[in-house]
Design goal:
The chain has about 170 residues and is mainly α. The chain has helices at about 5-15, 20-45, 55-60, 70-95, 100-105, 115-140, 145-165.
């Protein structure tokens, strides 16, 4: 995980800006708990994506047969369509939190939290684009238009998030 991604998670883990010593101690307690949870989640991940069953874009490009048949393609597309409500909800929540992130102070040696969040999101979008390109190559022609429409909606969500985090 990139440092900016972890930093963004930590920034979102602190629920408020501190104003008194009591607030600082309370926030540090929350931060410690959230950091431990984040660290446990990161530690639980295997060292590479392939070992948890996800296919890398290069593996998708090597999918055999390529394109996949209509039945398999439909199953994959239906699974992606089922993710769309969660993607939409996550998009809305990330945009709602823009003001919170923007209000945070610059972190020494790390930079502006809003810029760090935008960099992490842009990096994720680049990886998503690579995956989408690979999936498009492997898609059966009969499902290409529907898949491209879904891709357009996912990309529009990413663009909305990036715009929200652009100062």
């Amino acid at each position: 995980m990139r440092l900016t991604s972890l930093s963004f998670l930590l920034v979102l883990a602190v629920p408020s800006l501190c104003s008194t010593a009591e607030d600082v101690l309370a926030d540090l307690t929350v931060l410690k708990t959230n950091l431990e949870s984040t660290n446990n989640a990161i530690t639980a991940l295997p060292p590479d994506v392939g070992s948890i069953g996800f296919r890398t874009p290069s593996q998708l490009l090597a999918l055999s047969p390529s394109p996949v048949n209509d039945t398999d393609g439909r199953a994959i597309l239906d699974s992606l369509l089922a993710l769309e409500p969660s993607v939409n909800d996550s998009t809305d929540k990330l945009i709602e939190r823009t003001k919170v992130v923007a209000a945070l102070p610059t972190i020494p040696l790390m930079g502006n939290p809003l810029a760090m969040a935008k960099a992490s999101i842009a990096s994720f979008k680049a990886a998503l684009t690579t995956l989408e390109d690979a999936a498009e190559v492997a898609a059966p022609p009969s499902l290409l238009a529907e898949g491209q429409a879904l891709r357009g909606r996912f990309d529009a969500n990413m663009d909305r998030i990036i715009a929200a985090y652009t100062p």
